[in-house]
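If your schedule permits, I should be very grateful for your opinion on a structural question. What I wish to show you is a protein chain and, alongside it, a tokenised description of its three-dimensional fold. Would you kindly read the sequence against the tokens and tell me how you understand this chain to fold? Here, with my thanks, is the record as I have it:

===
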Amino acid sequence: MDSLGRPDWAGRLRVRQSELAAANLDGVVVSSAPNIQYLTGFDGSAGTLLISGDETVLISDGRYALTIQEGIRAGTLAPVHFEQVSSRYDLTLVDLVKSRGLRRVGFEAAHVTVAGLRAWRQGLGEVAWVETDDLVERQRIIKDAWEQDVFRRGGLAIASVAARLGEWVRPGRSEREVAHAIERGIEEAGFSKPAFATIVASGPNSAHPHARPTSRRIEAGDLVVLDFGGVLDGYCLDLTRMCGVGSISPAAQALVTAVRDAHHAAVEAVRPGVETRAIDRAARDVLEGHGLGQAFQHGTGHGLGLEVHEAPRIARVSADPPELVAAGMVFTIEPGAYVPGVGGVRLEDDVLVTPTGCEVLTGGPRELLVV
């Protein structure tokens, strides 16, 4: 974090440059929008980044030219060279690679189309194009001091939205009306936008893990799943809380208790060096002990950052070799159980892995909110 309280973009770019020689590359093309944002601060809808050993070039078109140039001068973007597209992005990139004499150039295999690669090869027949996987994503998975500060502020802000749920959830209101109220609350809390489409699922709809708000009106006896998040300084927060409308059934209360216990077990399992699937196992064991193993239909968590779903994945099936948790990772803990005819329950918090365990970023009450 620099003295202006901005990301250390120059440092992030140096990491990428320092690894080129080890990968036997003269340069690398970054085309994923979140990766470009992470490395430079540029969050426009169109751009390409060419990184070589001693230079980084941001390619974009005339729509963003003035914004980029002013941002570089003001220090609100990384200190890169800006190249405006003359006619087409692929032709501009080809010219830049030629002029710099690059011979082995990496590219993000998951983010480049077949047509795009074909165009580069046609324009640069003498260049070897080398597939790379998750180069920047591996760098993004460990949050630096600036990012951790954003997540701490965001955790407090999204918890303040959760503290207002009692204002918005009540019998007779439709799921859509509640979702709109939550999204207004997200904006009022200082977020630039929702991190994803808000989920409000009541009564029978709560048994669907990713239900979308409908015109159904909330009724007495309902369980209500409220899953929402916001974007702060580009980073996504994600939270789920539960409401019960009046008196809920014993079967519904049993779901609430089981998921609460599973959530606690998963949080307690988080520490550096543990396998991601072991955290999932901790939650799943509790739910199986309650006879709800088949009712847990998704993973226990997912990474957070510039995207609302990114690495690491906290689930039964992990990478081979298994992925290990490391200090600086940020991810959700969100076990759930969904039983048709009874309803569904999910409880979600965001955690930052510390050297000795984890810090729960999203505070506030986690008990069933009875309205």
Remarks:
- The chain has eleven helices and 20 strands.
- The first strand starts at residue 27 and ends at 30.
- The radius of gyration is 23 Å.
- The chain has a mean pLDDT of 95.
